[in-house]
Structures are given as structure tokens and as C-alpha cells.
Amino acid sequence: MLEELRQDYARTARGKGLHESAVVLKHCLRNALLPIITLVGIQAGYLLGGAIVIEEVFALPGLGRLLLNAIGQRDYAVTQGVILFIAFNFLVINLLADLAYALVNPRVRTG
Amino acid sequence: MTRLRIPRVWRSPGTVVGLIICVLMLVIALFSTNLAPFPALSQRPLDMMLPPGGAYALGTDILGRDMLSRLMRGATNSLRVAVLAVALASLAGTAIGLLAGYAGGLLDTLLMRLVDLLFAFPPLLLALAIVSALGMGAQNTIYAIAIVYLPIFARVARAPTLVIKTKEYVTAAQAQGASTWRIMLRHVLPNIAAPIIVQISLALAWAILLEASLSFLGLGTQPPEPSWGGMLSESRRDMEYAPWLAIFPGAAIMLAVLGFNMLGDGLRDALDPQLRGT
Q1: Residue B158 near residue B113, CB atoms below 8 Å
Q2: Of B46, B70, B192, B254, whose CB neighbour count within 10 A is largest?
Q3: Residue A110 within a domain
Q4: Domain range for A63
Q5: Is residue A40 included in any domain, yes or no?
Q6: Shortest CA distance to A93 belongs to which of A35, A27, A48?
Q7: How far apart are CA B156 and CA B241, in angstroms?
Q8: pLDDT digits (tens, 9 = 90+) for B242-266
Q9: Which of B120, B129, B217 sits opposite A68 (nearest CB)?
Q10: pLDDT for res B82
Q11: Which of chain A's residues have a Cβ under 8 Å away from the Cβ of B236?
């Protein structure tokens, strides 16, 4: 964000008399968002994994507990199902992150 | 008189602190049996649940085992898993990345798609899946963590290989008739070593955390052998009236992860100026 505010296009936007909030929100924030979106995709993976540990700590009934119980009982069908389900969610989140890329930054839009 | 020159790496205080923590942890892990005041597994029921202080510097657990000794033995177990896993991951990952990057073409596509496949799973989930398939225990935890971190090393090795293989000195070596293996190992590998070394330090921090998570969930190091994650898990029931059981293993995990992260960040700043501050 700090770097984007120093860019030439930010100066141009201010130069043509735009309100400071328009410069910050419409011009700079869009460009500064790109690395944040990438991080959201990666962090989602740690979050889904972390949820398993958290569910165990606080004894919450959820997918993580289901997975751990299934592993403990060597219930391979349930283990496989839960792991594939969470992995699928992770992929969808990353797909959405990639699509959000094009939403905030028209430069990466193709065709 | 010649002045002592300190290499650039060690000028940032964070790197030095990180290195000191890492060396301290490794020394404790290597010599835990000599350094520990009590045997880590011996139970003294009369001394159970003693708070820190007195004969037991960090208190005792529900079976009267000395916490300090168990933490030291835990360092041995946890760091052994982390170090071996990262060693496996970095060796195999670098080999795959180097081969894919240098060979190019179909082999590159094939290897990197396999790596992408491993990337599609969240790290802890992939480790859980592998451990559940192979069975519980420290040995399988090593394989699980190694497979989780293999794709990162493959990518970190492949990207600079693509750049290095177009350099003139590689063409010169090819013209001299050097074998493909020789070019990869003697000309390309030394030039891509810097980012891999940085990645090893950072991966160690994550591997310690992952080992702690798996042991916490009861799938990693099996009791009575102590590991930091396992000790944290055992402490949960008695946390309210014996907080030292939870605080010290937690602090040990935090300190180890912090140390390897600081060392990794420092090395990255020194070896790769472009990434500074990220």
C-alpha cells in the first residue's frame, strides 16, 4: 500500500483533482490487494489444518474430529472422504482467489 | 593491524539471536541424556504435580516425571523428526526441481504436475493423510513431513535452474563435453544453493510446528517418549491447576520456531537482497 501510494498513477490521480479517498480506495487499494489475495489462498490451507487441531483442543464436533476418530479407528473410507472434501474446499478457495485477481486487476484478465 | 571483518549475514541482531537459539536447541537435543537432571521416563509418584522450583526446576507432571528432563528429551525427539524430515524433503525436492528445470520438456511437465498435486492439499491435512495410511509413530511422521515439504523445495530449486541453464558458462561446459550430471551437480547446483539453504531454515521452523501438531493429535511421537506436542496434549486436562505443564512445552515450541524463523529471515536478507523486508 505504501509503495502504491508513491506510484506515478497515484500522483496523476491526485493531479486531476480526485478526492484523496478516491485515490486511496479506487486506485491504490486495488493494486495493493493482489498480494493479500494470494496470501488468503495460502492461509486458507493452514486455517483448514488448524481447524482440526482447534476442534481437538476444545472438543468441538466437526470435520476435524470426524477425521481424527476415523484415523483412530482405521476407518479408511471416512478418512479418505473427509480429506478429499477438505482438499476440494481448499482448491475452490484458491480458484476463487485466482478469480478475485481478475476482479480487482483488469490487467490479468485474458481473452 | 587487520580488523576483524564480520560477514554481512551476522550484522543483523535478529539473525544472531536466531542462530544462538537454534544452536542452543540443537545442543540440548543432541546431549539431552547427559544434560538432563533426571531420567526423562522415570516416574516418582511421591513427587507428582510439584510446581516449578526446588529440586525440579520446571516442576513435575502427574506421574512425577521431571518436566525439565522431559522437555530436553522432547527436544531430541521433536528436532530429530524435524531435521530428518527436512533433510529428506530438501534432498528429494532439490533433485526433482533440478532435474525438471534442467531437462525441461515432458519430464518437467510430468514432475511439476506431480508436485502441483501435492500442493493441492493443506499441509497438516496431507501429513494426517500420510500418517493414517502408513500408521502412527515418529518414523512415519518423518516421511509425512518430508512429503509435505518436498514440493516447496522442488519449486524453489526449479525456478533458478531455468535461469542458470541459459547462462554462458553452462553452454561452455556443454561445449567442453561435460556430462549432464556433471553440469547439474557442479555448475547449476552451487548457483541455486542460496535460496535452498534459506528454505531449509524456514522449513525447519514449520516442520517443528507440524511435528508438534501431529504429536498433539496423538499421531506423531508415541508416549511414554516425550515430545513437545505430546506433552502439550497431556497437559490439557490439568491445565487449570497445573499451568506449568502447558506453559513450558508451549514456550519450547514457540522458542524453537522463532529461532529457526529468525535465522531463515536473516539468511534470506543476506543472500537474496530482493526479498528484503517481505
Answers
A1: no
A2: B70
A3: no
A4: 2-104
A5: yes
A6: A48
A7: 47
A8: 888 888 889 999 999 999 999 988 8
A9: B217
A10: 93
A11: 57
